[in-house]
Amino acid sequence: MLKLRRIELIGFKSFSDRGEITVHDSGVTAIVGPNGCGKSNVSDAIAWVLGEQSAKSLRGEKMEDVIFNGTRNRAPMGMAEVSITLTQIGNGNGNGNGNGSGPSSALWQRPLSEGQTRDIIVQRRLYRSGESLYLIDGKPCRLRDIQEIFLGTGLGPNSYAIIEQGRVGQLLSSKPSDRRALIEEAAGITKFKAKRKLAESRLEAARQNLSRVNDILAEVDRQRNSLKRQAGKARRYIEVRNRMREILSNVFSTRAEMFVDQQDRIEISLVLMGSEGKEREQEIERLSSFVHQRRTDVAAGEKNLDDLRGRRSEI
Ligand code: ATP
């Protein structure tokens, strides 16, 4: 359970000076004042600090309109800030608000035992530059962290805890579905609905991831088949190449043997031709000396003949 303790405003709408409203434990706290004195600005401040995103719901045109705009005697301010202090009261079932329970989670997320209390300060700041900041216990946080605190408590923008002027009539005449949303929030169902929505969106994200993984698997499968085909081709190529090397080596070794045989035969015939050549040379020498002898014999015969002719003429 959460109880509103204090509201502090500075620079928010008509609160140029720092304003503080303390909510007492017992009874009803009322803000009374003349028309236009800024009463509704307080409920706007609560809706705003709880994360209201619509400037129209805060009765402005744009979000910057929540920053004090100045008056005849005062200059406009550059920043609006609203802080609310709440007391968390443990209800013995893990306190309900927030999801964290581990030692690493923020203090406000840790469960409280029944009756145990803890204060929590929620702040929102907006600068005229457009820069905006949410804080829990002085530490910057996400808008979602703030929304998580108030889920199922009835506090929060558009919840039943803040009912502006004219809203009661609007609620009574609103659509049954809108009334149902309000009753569900009051019954604490919204928190579970929000969790279910979150779980469903996580499931959807998981489904999409799964379908992406399936796509990737199909793609990997395609690539694996193509690689298998390439590997088969490579294996066949290696087999054929090895066979070709075997055949070539057989061809070359047969040819080499043939060449060696041929060389042996040529060498033998060379040796034979060499010895035959020598015999021919010897024959030529023998014939040359025979011719020389015959020539010497012819020369001697001719000389004899000449001698005989000379003697005959003398006779
Ligand atoms: P009623 O009783 O008529 O509903 P109220 O008391 O609720 O009035 P609010 O509507 O809360 O009054 O306050 C309106 C006042 O806040 C106006 O005087 C308006 O000028 C002032 N105001 C609103 N926004 C700003 C702003 N950004 N800067 C300065 N003043 C602002």
Pick out its properties.
single chain; about 325 residues; alpha+beta; Rossmann fold; six-stranded antiparallel β-sheet; 5 helices; about 50% helix; rod-shaped; binds adenosine-5'-triphosphate
Describe this structure in words.
This protein has a domain at 2-188: Rossmann fold (3-Layer(aba) Sandwich), CATH 3.40.50.300. It has 315 residues and is α+β, with helices and mostly antiparallel strands. Residues 98-104 have low confidence and may be disordered. β5 and β6 form a beta hairpin. Helices cover 51% and strands 14% of the residues. It is built from five helices and six strands.
Spatial order of strands in the largest sheet:
2-1-3-4-5-6
**Whole-angstrom Rg:** 59 Å
The ordered H/E elements are: EEHEEEEHHHH
pLDDT averaged residue by residue? 88
Q: Report the count of strand segments.
A: 6
